[in-house]
Amino acid sequence: MTGADARVALVTGGSRGIGRAIALRLAADGLTVVVNYSANSTAAADVVARIESAGGRAMPAKADVSDPDQVGNLFDLVTAELGAVDVLVNNAGITRDSLLLRMSHEDFDAVIQTNLRSAFLCTKASLRGMLKAKWGRIISIASVAGISGNAGQANYAASKAGMIAFAKSIAKEVGSRGITSNVVAPGYIETDMTHSLGDGAKESASSAIALGRFGQPEEVAEAVGFLASDASSYITGQVLAVDGGITL
After folding, report:
1. Which of 76, 120, 189, 204 is 20 to 30 A distant from 66 in Cα terms?
2. Which of 37, 156, 188, 234 is flagged as catalytic?
3. What percentage of the chain reaches a pLDDT higher than 70?
């Protein structure tokens, strides 16, 4: 097959939240989607079932994408089952929020490894196939915290700022081979991470957003769908903030 329907997309952390919405969006565009997860096999299976029930093709793939050996095994599996990865979405991420003076070394390292190291490992693993094909899309899901910082999230903000600089560097390295590398930086999105906020915190955050509301995972997925498509062929090294205007 040729065209978008033959392309393979790998979404790390694709079983819930923004990753889930991205997986569903890419499948709706005709891509075969690998739904990566680290623990919740039931959630990943549900995403795959939804894609297949809509006539798409998908497979779940368990891996801790901060671990080099597991990333190697993940890409071996995907290549054997589906072929090389054409579209990589570096979405896996965690938070371990705390004011800096109270932040443990372990919490700092865990966030950097899960959010930033995973992007390095998966991007490196995907490039061989993309370089051979002379086509590829690398899309990293950062955060507005990586643009403007956020109190109590020094580790998270540093990891996301690192993802932005990493994506820009990769864009310069591989752009001549038809591979683009871009970043989507969500603001406050209705996910498990924001559900834990109290009503007062949500109201305060909403008042700082130009559009006056939190975003939906599907709104982030729309941006990813565009950057994964041929329509974005002349866009690379860019950061698209899907934030309702909070960084204005």
Report:
1. 189
2. 156
3. 94
